[in-house]
Amino acid sequence: MAETHPCCLTVAGSDSGGNAGVQADLRTFHSYGLHGCTVFAALTAQNPHGVSAVHAVPPDFVAAQLDAVLGVYDIRAMKTGMLAEASVIEAVADRIAARPEILRVIDPVMVATSGARLISDDAVGALERRLLPLATLVTPNLPEAAALCGTDGGDAETLARGVYDRFGCAVLVKGGHADGDAATDVFFDGHELRSFSLPRVPNPASTHGTGCTLAAALAAELALGHGIVQAIDGAKRHVRAAIAGSYLVGDACGVLGFVREGGPRP
Predict the structure, then answer these.
(1) End-to-end CA distance of the chain, in Å?
(2) 7, 149, 169, 212: which is the annotated catalytic residue?
(3) Is 232:185 a contact under the CB 8 Å cutoff?
(4) Which among 13, 169, 174, 236 is annotated as catalytic?
(5) Domains of the chain, earliest start first
């Protein structure tokens, strides 16, 4: 019989511009040589300049998509993106809780870098109660980590410890939007505190979709059997290479570069 290759799953929103969300996740999985399965949790009308409309996917259809792929495809790891409604989060949590063999990267898309709240309080509560305790790794940005800790701010190390203490899952606090010449993320798993830092790419054509791409790359690294620390190192290098290779595809409209598996990663 032919060899079975591992798959990755994304549960996220669709980006009509192809820069972020499910589209970015599939590009990332493919760059690692992995087949990607998809569950659409929302449809958006957007481009790099903003989101003009969002159409929520009913929770029963989210559940049906999950039922269609789980147990059929050899899904080794998955990632979640923006899950805007509590009922959708409940549907996702119900199904992945029954599949503990699947490694889970949870990107808690809830607070913009500006500090604006992106999802409702009910959805935040469902995320905290149902989904984060199931995570292999959770990847908040600094405002999201602060919100999860119930504070207005704090340094990345303190926030990483706070997220772990509250939810019991390994955490990578993303510092890509902080000031400085390097993009530094902080990891904590209850035992090891570690920083991962790479120099910033000067004047890239695009950085849109980097959060989605990082979470997808982490899932891909885990699906290939890498430990969390190795996965973080590889995923950060993947994202930096994608930023370095970004290019224009329209008027003031850029996209992250496609990183080929086995190719050079800065």
Answers:
(1) 38
(2) 212
(3) yes
(4) 174
(5) 7-255 (3.40.1190.20)
